[in-house]
Structure prediction request, 347 residues.
Amino acid sequence: MKFVDEALMRVQAGHGGRGCMSFRREKFVPFGGPDGGDGGLGGSVYLRAQQGINTLADFRIQRAFKAKSGEAGSGNDRTGGGGDDLYVTVPVGTTVIDDETSEQLGDLTHAGDVVIVARGGKGGWGNTRFKSSTNRAPRKFMPGLPGEKRLLRLEMRVIADVGLLGLPNAGKSTLIRTVSAARPKVAEYPFTTLYPNLGVVSVGENRSFVMADIPGLIEGAADGAGLGIRFLKHLQRTRVLLHLVDIAPLDPAADPVKDARAIVAELKKFSPELGKRERWLVLNKLDLMTPEDAEARCKDIVRRLRWKGPTHRISGATGAGTKALCDALMRRIEERAAEAALEAEDA
Prediction:
């Protein structure tokens, strides 16, 4: 199925049922009075996150969703039946935005999360509601209120613990193939990755984390170069970013340090908050150089970048250094989870 991470949908809640105008008509009851019931409540539209859905492609086919309207009231003070609510399933990680006002209506980050996006209209009053000591035979009733309607913009952001960041051909897809069961396309030309890929990295019994690989960035992506920065939103839910740097680029004139700084600049242009996210430097493709040359190149890159954070040297193709990297990531993710639990308790 084609990966689609953005979609528009129209939702229409059900209208409220019409109130009833009726009078009690029974033998030997000459003045029975009004007995018109109220209309039923219109059905509302909800979005519900469901595990196992990985794309918004279905919303390119069906774009309009409408809940049922309430039934009209009837005599003998009977209220009309309410319209059934409509539940629409979406992928976990979907952000719901009102396209006309840009208001965020919900962020469905866990399976089973539900958000109401259109409320059903209230049922109209029957004539019983209008009786009084001075108006004993009211002939007034109310139509049901219309249900809400909205044009929604759905944005899916994959949920992963670790996100891979780097230039095209930096080795991101190779790394995720090596450490997980994910099988993204790998080739010797740029932009082989056209949409995000997720892989579960297992580091022991009951210890694993999710890694996300997104299409590579290039300088000027914020202005539309390459694949642009459309897929950077998929890194916004990650806890740690791995910035992969190719220490042996195919172009001899390429400068890994300059390229690394360009990637960081594009990251900050997209989101200042994402630019401050915890980021590790991963120097990749050790297998393409002699150990001595690789050591010298890595030291030079770290020195010129003035890098003070965690650094790992790996070869995604041979797997060298990847186990140590995954073990360190697992420990850090567990630390972050423990910190979040303590903060929740304090709150």
In short: Residues 162-346 form a domain with the Rossmann fold fold (CATH 3.40.50.300).
